[in-house]
Hints:
Radius of gyration: 22 Å
Number of helices: 22
Order of helices and strands: HHHHHHHHHHHHHHHHHHHHHH
Low-confidence stretches: none
Strand content: under 5%
Helix content: over 70%
Distance between the termini: 23 Å
Amino acid sequence: MTESIRDKSISGFIWLFIDKAGASVINLVVTVLLARLLTPEDFGLVAMVMIFFEISSAFINSGFSFALIRQKTISDEDKSTTFIFNLIVACVLYAVLYLSAPAIADFFGEVILIWIVRIMGLNLIINSLGIIQQAVLTHKIDFKTQTRIRIVAVSISSAIAIGMAFSGFGVWSLVAKLMLMEGLTSLLLWIHHPWKILLKFSRESFKRLFGFGSNLLAEAIIHKVFQNILQVIIGRFFTASTLGYYSQANYLTNVPANNFQQIIQKVTYPVLSKLQDDKMKLKRGYREIMLLSSFIIIPIMVIIGVMANPIIVSFLGEKWEPSTPFLQLLCLGGITYHFNSINLDLLLVLGRADLCLRVEIVKKIITGIAIIIGIQFGIYGLVLGYVVSHYLALIINTYYSDKFLSYGLAEQLSDIGKTILISAVMGTLVYLFSAYGPVLPNIWEVIIAVILAISIYLGLHLLLKSEEIKLLHKMVIPRTYKFFVRS
């Protein structure tokens, strides 16, 4: 990457990291408090219906956000056309969900889901109101404004949710948290970045944007269905409590893995899109991203997996201990999230949304087969099958990286080989400490294990003089220092 693009990418990464880290810390604290105040059934009820909102949100976005971000300049007609289309789709989808709520409740055998669906469904309309601002700010690589807005929205909505939980509102505390967070985000986006709606629908803009976005729409819908399919299956064939245990484990995995993957995607897409015509610089940029993201994500997943039980008992309480095996299995899958995201993002940068759809279809067929085989062995077999499908997806995702950038799976694994080896050594030593070390209260066991893990991990990287350490020293640390000095 060029110097200016490196500066922009690191600046964007820092602001997004502050956004995700700040929001995640707040959410984690709130989740811990709510987990102690509410029951696994309460969390399971909300998890049952999330798939419907995830799919609906994909329809509202329609791939237009990615299409807008990829434009050299975003015209007022592009904004207006996207806004009108998204708002209409949101209203139609809300009407569908409102009318389908009784059928959804009957499918899961939970009457209360009728009003949960109808109230949470309003978020579809609320979200559609702020999509243009988010796309424009991302196009400008302005994550600072989005960070401030998100943290304010998360803080206020979380405080109100905790108050409601203390007052005995149960599952409605979780519903209120989601509603308020999205509502405040859209409101603050309009306050900080208003724009004049032309109320003009341009067929030319629609064709151009939808031509790129239609494949992303189909890909997003397929992805959302399979991303949430386990929650539907568990909610339908197992108990609400079981789904609650799974959803909490999934949340604890997503805090580092999915959040970091989303940061990578948001930063790399607008930044590396500017290098799409220079394959050598593009490969160098992706290689640096692969090295640094693996350097962070892999050891985090390893330590969470190894210390799963004391982490859950310490923070969520003993009633959530059945979440432990789910967390351990999901951490195995979490190691692959950034791999799959980075490789798939390459196709978007190159403008090959059609291949994204093709890849997604093949991967989901494999996921479906893995789930069908896995469920024959019960709930843990179901989750394990889902995790295995993530590793099989790597083979498919890296096929086009090899074809277009000559950066295939073998080279990628070779690049991060030291990180994998060091993480394995670190995980083994931490496991031995936990299993055979002194008996300590869970919270102290977690704290000491984390300190030990960080010391071993960084110590071995420094000892081996890994390329990741060199990148941190030469590129990341100086630019991070510059960022904070300027800020």
